[in-house]
Write a structure and sequence with these properties.
Metal_resp_DNA-bind_regulator; 4 helices; Arc Repressor Mutant, subunit A; about 110 residues
């Protein structure tokens, strides 16, 4: 993959990881399990990208967290807040609108040939 394509793909994926994380964390989860969940869904995210994102979303009030110390190794669990849920739904709606608009452009440009 050339550098131009890689850069554009990274830019495209950046916003989708936010939406995917907010949706996935409607059920409490910790960072590593979120990495696995996102990967299984087709979102390839590295830990050094995800953890700062989780901290930023928490600082914005979109996620809440708490430590679980019941296990041998303490884990920080995250969960989407009500504000995070609302943002996720708004972003999903916008994603759908953009997808439709791109589809419409594809159809129009294909029929004008």
């Amino acid at each position: 993959m050339d550098a131009t394509l890689a850069g554009h793909l990274q830019e495209l994926r950046r916003g989708t990881v936010v939406v995917a994380s907010l949706i996935a964390l409607r059920a409490p989860g910790y960072g590593y399990s979120l990495l696995e969940t996102l990967s299984r869904a087709g979102f390839e995210v590295e830990a050094n990208t995800l953890y700062p994102l989780l901290r930023r979303l928490e600082a914005q009030g979109l996620l809440t967290s708490e430590w679980n110390t019941d296990e041998a190794r303490p884990r920080k669990f995250y969960r989407t807040t009500e504000q995070g849920d609302a943002l996720a739904e708004t972003l999903r709606g916008e994603w759908s609108r953009i997808d439709t608009a791109i589809g419409d452009l594809s159809v129009k440009s294909g029929s004008e040939e």
